[in-house]
């Protein structure tokens, strides 16, 4: 009797399991589908672009951006400002070992390579230069990116016209850019070294500007760091070197630290199509982070620190 009862129970369990298993699977399947459906960002459209689950981390990143960028600073503060009248001699002493680069210029081996005057620039005579020089009446001008000196020579003429004793420091590695000689074949090369700085210096001679303009022939990054270390600040700073985002971004950040209170920083190529990706993006980001206003003057952007 006991054995019969056991058998009966076993059969009952088998039948019950056969009935319950598919129902359990079905319930599980339904639950998983419902959960998946409810947690998906969009229930109908495919393919889907990734949508951030919450905007908060993105906003936090933007809020923290200035302090994040601060971490990239090499030096927190530049040296105490030098009086303007000591700027030229300080550059001669600290960059040229106390000798003017114009002494004995041009060296004999360079003379045959030079043209009496070869000036070429881009927007280098724009009205912005006169507007800003009249407004700021600068004693020290820092030009970041000089090439053959077109804008430097224009600024020199304007300061002379206004009776200002301004020094113009021209920061450039005087290498141009890879392939620039495709359009400037007449700028000669000496053993792979292009004679851009010599032609720039010759241009200064041709307009009698050697007393008020000096080359600072290094990469913009290292030259701006040096000026920061020496305490050489600009009343007017023009940024017109590398036009890709990273170059423009780095130049603007480094140059802005060298702006005297009340000074103006400005630069070319705010509007050209390609510079939307480089110069314009860098200027806009910089102004937004620092809460500065960008003014426009022709193709130039202008940030006035007053
Ligand atoms: C557009 S040109 C400057 C034109 C000049 N401002 C004018 O209007 O006559 C750019 C110059 O920036 C210089 N340059 C670009 N990147 C540089 C860098 N990282 N360091 C030094 N000079 C740089 C090039 O050698 C070139 O002479």
Descriptive report:
With 306 residues, the chain is α/β, with parallel strands linked by helices. The protein has one domain (85-304): 3-Layer(aba) Sandwich (Rossmann fold), CATH 3.40.50.150. Helices cover 42% and strands 13% of the residues. It is built from ten helices and nine strands. The protein has helices at residues 2-39, 56-63, 65-70, 87-96, 127-136, 150-161, 196-206, 220-230, 245-256, 279-290; strands at residues 140-144, 167-171, 189-190, 193-194, 213-216, 234-239, 259-267, 295-297, 300-304. The strands form two sheets. Strands 5-2-1-6-7-9-8 form a seven-stranded mixed β-sheet, sandwiched between helices. Strands 3-4 form a two-stranded antiparallel ribbon. Helix 8 (220-230) runs parallel beside helix 9 and helix 9 (245-256) packs parallel to helix 10. The protein is globular, with a radius of gyration of 33 Å. S-adenosylmethionine binds next to helix 6.
């Amino acid at each position: 009797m006991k054995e019969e009862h056991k058998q009966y129970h076993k059969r009952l369990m088998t039948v019950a399991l056969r009935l319950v298993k598919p129902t359990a699977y079905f319930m599980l399947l339904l639950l998983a589908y419902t959960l998946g459906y409810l947690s998906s960002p969009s229930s109908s459209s495919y393919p889907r672009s990734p949508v951030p689950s919450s905007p908060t981390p993105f906003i936090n990143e933007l809020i923290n951006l200035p302090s994040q960028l601060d971490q990239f600073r090499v030096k927190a503060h530049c040296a105490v400002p030098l009086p303007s009248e000591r700027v030229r001699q300080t550059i001669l002493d600290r960059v040229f070992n106390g000798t003017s680069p114009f002494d004995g210029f041009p060296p004999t081996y360079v003379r045959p390579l030079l043209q009496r005057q070869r000036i070429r620039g881009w927007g280098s005579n724009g009205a912005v230069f006169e507007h800003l020089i009249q407004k700021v009446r600068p004693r020290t001008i820092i030009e970041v990116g000089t090439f053959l000196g077109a804008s430097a020579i224009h600024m020199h003429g304007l300061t002379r016209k206004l009776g200002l004793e301004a020094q113009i420091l021209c920061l450039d590695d005087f290498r141009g850019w890879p392939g620039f000689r495709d359009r400037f074949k007449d700028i000669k090369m000496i053993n792979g070294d292009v004679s851009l700085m010599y032609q720039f210096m010759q241009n200064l001679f041709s307009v009698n500007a050697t007393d008020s303009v000096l080359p600072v022939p290094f990469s913009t990054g290292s030259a701006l760091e040096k000026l920061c270390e020496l305490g050489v600040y600009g009343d007017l700073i023009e940024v017109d070197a590398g036009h890709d985002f990273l170059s423009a971004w780095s130049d603007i950040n480094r140059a802005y630290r060298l702006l005297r209170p009340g000074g103006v920083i400005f630069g070319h190529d705010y509007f050209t199509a390609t510079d939307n990706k480089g110069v314009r993006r860098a200027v806009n980001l910089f102004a937004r982070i620092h809460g500065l206003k960008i003014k426009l003057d022709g193709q130039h952007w202008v940030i006035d620190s007053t």
